[in-house]
Amino acid sequence: YIFSDGHPITGFSKEFDFIGRGYVFGIPFMIYVLVLVGIVSHIILRHTRLGKSIYAIGGNEQAAVVSGINVKRTLLFVYMYGGLMAGVAGIMLASRIGAGQPTAGLGYELDAIAAVVIGGTSLMGGVGTIVGTLIGALIIGVLNNGMDLMHVSGYWQQVLKGVIIVGAIILDKYRNQ
């Protein structure tokens, strides 16, 4: 807001626009970015000591500390990686809509939480996969698109997503008992 005075920033180069609107072999470039990010994230979580530490901290932070895991360093990485992914998403969104707009991603956090929960990640920690999250994101995308096509109010869409999240949390709680 401060740098742009609340106005969208436009006039990007063709190369930048390609990120969000370009195609390679008939497939949107954004799909390649999604696959790359998914593979890298999967490898980090499933095939590295760091990934095992992340799951351990999510499952029980005290047990992770007792096991000798450097929790502060691991959490620093998690937050930095999350920030990097938010930056990648922001670049892709700005490229897709052709403008850098401070309010463009408002409300996406609810979609992200819903996708993760639908994908089987426990909000209690220690359980979840990248593949499940991607499937959850596809379900949320189809749900959003379907509700838009049916002219469902944006407010009711948020209510429905909230109900889905609460339902998934209740299921997760019963599954963990």
Can you tag this structure with a few keywords?
177 residues; 2 strands; two-stranded antiparallel ribbon; mainly alpha; 70% helix; 2 domains; single chain
Please provide a written account of the structure:
The structure is a single chain. This protein has helices spanning 14-21, 29-47, 49-59, 61-66, 71-97, 108-118, 130-149, 154-175; strands spanning 23-24, 27-28. It has 177 residues and is mainly α. The chain folds into two domains: 1-103, no CATH class; 107-177, no CATH class. A two-stranded antiparallel sheet has the order 1-2. Helix 2 crosses helix 3 (49-59), helix 3 (49-59) crosses helix 5 (71-97) and helix 6 runs parallel beside helix 8 (154-175).
Number of domains as seen in the coordinates = 2
SSE string, helices as H and strands as E? HEEHHHHHHH
Strand arrangement within the widest β-sheet reads: 1-2
Cα-based radius of gyration, to the nearest Å: 18 Å
| CA-CA gap between termini | 46 Å
SS strand fraction: under 5%
Residues in helices, as a percent range: over 70%
- Per DSSP E runs of 2 or more residues, the count of β-strands stands at 2
